[in-house]
Each structure stands twice: as C-alpha cells, then as structure tokens.
Amino acid sequence: MLYTYSQSRKWYKGNTHVHTTQSDGGKSIKEVCEMYHDAGFDFIAITDHWKAYRKKESDPDFDILTIDGIEIDGNDASGHYYHIVALGPVADMTVDPCLERSIEILVAQHAFLILAHPYWSGNREEDIKKFPFHALEIYNHVCSWLNGKGTCAYLWDVALEDGLPLFAIASDDAHLLPAHPGWNGGWIMVQAEELTQTDILTALRKGRFIATTGPHFKSISYDNETIACTTGDIVKARLVGAGYSGDRLWYGGDVFNEFTFDISKNPRLKNSPYLRLEIEDANGKIAWTNQL
Ligand SMILES: [Zn+2]
Ligand SMILES: [Zn+2]
Fold it and tell me: Same domain for 201 and 253?
C-alpha cells in the first residue's frame, strides 16, 4: 500500500480539463470560472489545445483558484494517437509534429502529465508505458457523451497490476458548445494543505485525491488488515485487486455511509500488488480512490 489519505485534511473540489475560447471552447476563461465557482468548485485547470494558460499577478481574480495547464495531441513515432493534459506553470507551445519532443518539453518543466481519455483515443497498455504519465483519465465526461468511450478501468488495472503507479482522474473536458454541452459530470476531490496551485499540484503528485462522477469519500483509513471508509450516500462498495481478486458490499439497494473491508483472511487480496476502492450511489455514479 503506497499512498496516504489523511483523516483530517480538507477536500477541495476541482476540474483538471476544460476548454475555453482560447481554443475550441464556447465560453471565455472568465465565464468558465464563474460557472464552476457557482457550481461549488474550488479550483479549475484551464487546458486549451496547444495554448498554455498561465496566471499572472495582474490577472483578475475569478473567485476560484485557476491551475495552469495545456492539452497537446498528436501521433508518436509509431503512429499511436495521444491527447495529453499537462498541469503546472508550463510555457506556451506551438503545435509540433514530433510528439516525443513536445512531451520532453513538458517533462523538463515538471508538468503533471495526464493521459487524457485513453479509450476514446484508442490507447493501449504499451502507450501508457511509453511516456512518464502521472495519471490517466478514468472518466472523461465529454468522451462518455460523444461515443460512450469515457472510461478506461481495464487499462488502469492492467497498468497497476504491472506495477505502474498511475493515478486516476475524472474530468469534464468541458467545451461548453451546443455540440458539447456537458460539464460538472466528472471531477476530483483533492486533499491539499491549502487551496493554492503549489499545494494542489503537490497533492496530485502524491495521489491524495479521489476521482468521481457523483459520490464522495469523507474518510479513508487502512492498515495491512482493514480498510475503513466513511462516505456520502452509496449503495455499493467494491475493493478491487489484481485479476479476479476483490470484495464487495451491497445491502439490497439500501443506502449506507460507512463500510469496512477485512483483508486479513483473504490471501489473494492481501498479496495483491495493488488495491483500490470504488463506491457507487443509487444513480449508478461512481467514485474511485487511487491505489491504497
Ligand atoms: Zn482531448
Ligand atoms: Zn480536452
């Protein structure tokens, strides 16, 4: 078990993938910030296509923390197609036909690299291993709406089973256009020290966040024997390990708000190279922890 969720640290709600009129989005940065602020978000990353957002001291305050970011895309030398969201204070970039070089530039600037909507892009496991991603999008709201390819749990589990410590992000990829109207459908809750870009990015690098399309974890504690959580209203909880190992709780559809998994008598779970949790609410919305 690798990563520590705190029992006391506050959760901040954020979206890591949004487009504005700086690229192909339908709303300005100001409008997007107002919408997300009014919907209860604490922070939002502005990730326009090949157009880095970098907040300056002189920029207006939007009543919501903005995180610097960019989305790049293209084919690698093998012809494999990628979309990559990079978070952090990266410099503006021009479209470069050499995707490898663009990724090198982002890595040199210490960006937090997210493999965006891998199912929609057609990515396979070999694609995840090729570049130093910190996370992948376990849920992308727009791709889910476009053709149902918004999730990628299989790819994530295969990567974890092979020892790749990837984190999972849920995002909107909001474009806010008539053809792409969806937003507030997938987000992360981050346990950061303070609501600042530095602290949010530090928490992301440590995996101190959960991804969700609705339900929420309030507390997550574990040792080598027991995993105990408190949550919002849910009807299912799943402990997911390698291969077919796992456990689940369900009470005929009744709502519950806390649960415990005892793995001490389950050698398959105890010896699994990774464990993660999923919870599900009555509407079928899901939340995912990172690897515990
Ligand atoms: Zn994309
Ligand atoms: Zn996008």
Answer: no
